[in-house]
Amino acid sequence: MAQDDLKNIADEIPWQSPVQPVELRPDSEFQFNCHKGVSCFNACCRNIDITLMPYDIVRLKRRAGLTSSQWVSRYTLPFPMDGHAMPGLKMATKPGTNECVFLEESGCSVYADRPSACRYYALGSMGVRRAGGAQVEDIYFVVREEHCKGHDEPRTLTVAQYRKEQGLEKYDQMNFEWRDIVLKKRSSGPTVGKPSERSLQLFDLCSYDMDNFREFIAGDGFAEVFDLSPDELAELLADEDKLLLFAGRFLKQVLFGEMTIAVKPEARSARLRKRRQREQEAGQGGD
Ligand code: SF4
Ligand code: SF4
Question: What is the pTM of this model?
Answer without folding.
Answer: 0.87
